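Q: What does the predicted 3D structure of TetR family transcriptional regulator look like?
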Amino acid sequence: MNKTVTSRAELLAAAKHIVYQEGLDQLNIRRLAKECGIALGSVYNYFPSKSDLIFGVIEDFWTHMFHDDLYVMSQPMSFPEFFAEVYQKLSISLNEFEASLLKQLSLLSSADKAKGRDIEGKYWQHMQEGFVHCLDQDDQIDASIWHEPFTKERFSQFVFINMMTMLRSGITDCSFFQEVLKRLLYK
């Protein structure tokens, strides 16, 4: 007997399970409905198409990755320490995510790929804002270093671009870049 009610979160959890265990090519609306024991129409209420379902999985990844806790630090820390924490978390999660999903995104249409980049861009902007927030909280940084064109926002963008380049290159140890940050930010 089919369940009559489920949540978007339950559907996304089941979709991620399918993708991580069997690959993106095994994910579709019919399969998800069967996996959740619900009617096909119930899935369509949340995800009108397979593309919407895939984007839901991508957005869920980024939301759980940083959206809720990027600005929350368990203890006061310097910007280079914060960067290292973010880097390690991203490195681990992206390796899992890439192995199961990112490589298979080439199956999407050009329009869907553009939509996926827009979703990622939103979360990447959030990460850069988190870097600026941490820079604001780091009282060891002399405020006089910030001026045009060396602003916190542009520095955050520089850090983010380099972080993503290192991650894409498979660099797991960010200690060199962490040292660069220390030399740039502190006297």
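A (community wiki): The structure tokens above were generated from the sequence. The helical segments are 8-22, 29-36, 40-46, 50-67, 79-100, 110-137, 152-168, 175-185. The longest helix spans residues 110-137.
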